[in-house]
Structure formats: C-alpha cells, structure tokens
Write a structure and sequence with these properties.
Elements: E1 4-9, E2 14-19, H1 25-34, E3 37-43, E4 48-53, E5 71-75, E6 82-91, E7 98-103, H2 108-121, E8 124-130
Antiparallel strand pairs: 1-2, 1-8, 2-7, 3-4, 3-8, 4-6, 5-6, 5-7
Length: 133
C-alpha cells in the first residue's frame, strides 16, 4: 500500500503527497522517520519556483532526477540537506536531487499560490505528518 503524508501551511493550504519508494527507498525511509515534523519553509534563492525546509535528516545521493512541478526531492548536500518542493514550471536548478515524493492534491495552482506567498512574504511555518490511509 502506498504511503502518503500531508503538509499543512500556517497561513492556509493543505497538500497530500505520495512517497515514491521505487525511486528513492532510503530517502523515503529517512523522511518517514522524521515525521511528524514542524518546518519553516523558505523560498530557494536561485532555483526558480521552489521552496524548501531542512528536516534534520541525512541521506546519500540516490537515483537522482531533475524535478518538475509538484515533485518533492531531497538535496543530500551536507551544506543544505533540504526537502525541496517545486511549485511551478519555472525551474532553474541544474542539479538533480533525490526525487522521493509527489504532490497528489488535485489543485497544483493552490500549491503555486502558497509558493508565491512564501516568496513574497517570507518564510512560513508548516506541519508535516503521515496521512490517514
């Protein structure tokens, strides 16, 4: 059975994501161990439509992929160790990361609104937890 988790933003927006253990099993395992967690999302400075948080987990590079809108990936670089969520098609990242989950909520436009809010208004608190299966 697929595992899902939810991210709820303090200023509004709840998104369900599905883990992709066939893509990055070790990253999925590390992320599950970190749940539930409270996070501070920030806009990525140079990557385009991406926001991120640092969950306090580590994982080696694993089956890295280039992201697309709705993807959730882990940057394993020890300087960052960040979970990245991509909220649009304008991505400038040239670095592949550990793709380990994907937003499955029906409205990716709502994800864009939250991403733009984080970009314009600054960091925002959120809570991530396992979704009811």
């Amino acid at each position: 059975m697929e595992k899902r988790f939810e991210i709820e933003f303090a200023k509004g927006g709840i998104f369900t994501a599905v883990l992709l253990p066939e893509e990055a099993p070790k990253t999925c395992e590390a992320f599950l161990k970190a749940l539930p967690l409270d996070a501070r999302f920030r806009q990525a400075r140079y990557a385009g439509e991406e926001f991120y948080f640092q969950p306090g987990m580590s994982c080696d590079p694993e089956n890295q992929r280039m992201p697309k809108w709705g993807d959730i990936a882990f940057n394993p670089d020890p300087k960052w160790r960040a979970v990245c969520i991509y909220y649009g098609d304008h991505l400038r990242t040239g670095t592949p990361f550990n793709l380990f989950a994907r937003i499955i909520s029906n409205n990716l436009e709502e994800l864009r609104k939250v991403g733009e809010r984080v970009w314009v208004q600054g960091e925002e608190a959120a809570h991530a937890k396992l979704a009811h299966q």
